[in-house]
Amino acid sequence: MEIIVTLLVGALAGWLGSVIYKGSGLGIIGNIVIGLLGSMVGYWLLGGLGIHLGTGWIGVILTGAIGAILILFILNLLFPRRK
Question: What is the pTM (predicted TM-score) of this model?
Answer without folding.
Answer: 0.83
